[in-house]
Structures are given as structure tokens and as C-alpha cells.
Design goal:
The chain has one domain: 60s Ribosomal Protein L30, Chain: A, CATH 3.30.1330.200. It has a five-stranded mixed β-sheet, with no helix packed on it. The chain has a five-stranded mixed β-sheet with strand order 2-5-4-6-7, with helices on one face. Helix 1 runs parallel beside helix 2. The chain is built from two helices and ten strands. The model has no long low-confidence stretch (mean pLDDT 94). Strand 4 and strand 5 form a beta hairpin. With 157 residues, the chain is α+β, with helices and mostly antiparallel strands.
Length: 157
């Protein structure tokens, strides 16, 4: 079964299901995976830092809050913290930034990397940046992330 993860959302799955998220532009898709337990999680984060919008209660919207929530959900479902790895995609700069501070895609990628590092989760593959959107699917059966882009074709990492 394909489990769809929306924008500012996250979900878990087990073998044989697959996680999929659409339209990653400046957003980042974070797939975390424990191969031994057969558990995967996917978060689709839209913004880097929850402190910028403290009144927003959707913790899945922000890299700094969504990633720890996904990690905790995986551990509660039987994943071992020491076996969890990550693959990330997205973080494109879809429009020319007015300034470096406005480059939301880059800021999302950096916040994602920082949140994963804080948890001790290694990033084993990534496809980030540039200027095109991506759709991502992830299978906990083989740990492969398929990336589909109308501009750049398909690839698997």
C-alpha cells in the first residue's frame, strides 16, 4: 500500500508498504529507516525553524520539531535509535532569492542536517538543492528512495 505524506505531515510504515510525498520544492523530505526492524518514516517539512512562528501548532511543518517527533515515533514503534539512518531530498531554490537569507531551500536543508546530527542519525544519501521539484517514495523493504522529477528524470538513492 502507498501511504501519502502531505506537506507539513509525517507518517510511518512497515514492510511491505511504501511512503510517498509529492511536490518537494523548497520543502525537504526526510526518510528515516531501521532496516532490521523494517520500519520507515517520512516527514515533509516546509520551514527550518519553529521559533520563527511560535503560534503555529503544527510541529510537522518545521525541521527542528518534525525530525525529533518522527525519530521518537519510530523508536516507539520498535526501531532502534542506533540503527536509524536517513535519506533526504528537496530543498530546491525554486525562485531566485532576493538575498542569501531568503534562500528557504538551503535553510531547510541546513536545518534538516542539524536536527539529524543532534539525534545522531547519519544521512546516508541525499538529493538536495538546485532549482527543480521532486516527488519522493521510500520503501522500507529495500531502503531505496526513488526520486521523480519532470525536469531531471528519475533516480534511486
Amino acid at each position: 500500500m502507498k501511504i501519502i505524506v502531505g506537506i507539513s505531515d509525517q507518517k510511518l510504515c512497515r514492510v511491505p508498504d511504501t511512503l510517498i510525498t509529492y511536490a518537494l520544492g523548497s520543502c525537504v523530505g526526510i526518510c528515516m529507516f531501521d532496516k532490521t526492524a523494517g520500519i520507515a518514516g517520512l516527514a515533509h517539512v516546509m520551514l527550518p525553524d519553529s521559533s520563527a512562528i511560535p503560534a503555529d501548532s503544527n510541529k510537522c511543518k518545521f525541521a527542528d520539531t518534525a525530525i525529533p517527533l518522527l525519530f521518537d515515533a519510530m523508536v516507539q514503534s520498535g526501531a532502534s535509535p542506533s540503527r536509524i539512518t536517513a535519506k533526504i531530498a528537496g530543498g530546491a531554490n525554486m525562485f531566485a532569492p532576493v538575498s542569501e537569507a531568503m534562500s528557504i531551500g538551503d535553510r531547510n536543508v541546513e536545518a534538516t542536517k542539524a536536527a539529524l546530527a543532534k539525534l545522531g542519525v547519519p544521512i546516508i544519501a541525499s538529493d538536495t538543492g538546485l532549482n527543480y521539484g521532486r516527488t519522493v517514495s521510500f520503501s522500507p523493504e529495500d531502503g531505496m528512495m526513488e526520486i521523480v522529477s519532470s525536469l531531471k528524470g528519475n533516480k534511486t538513492i
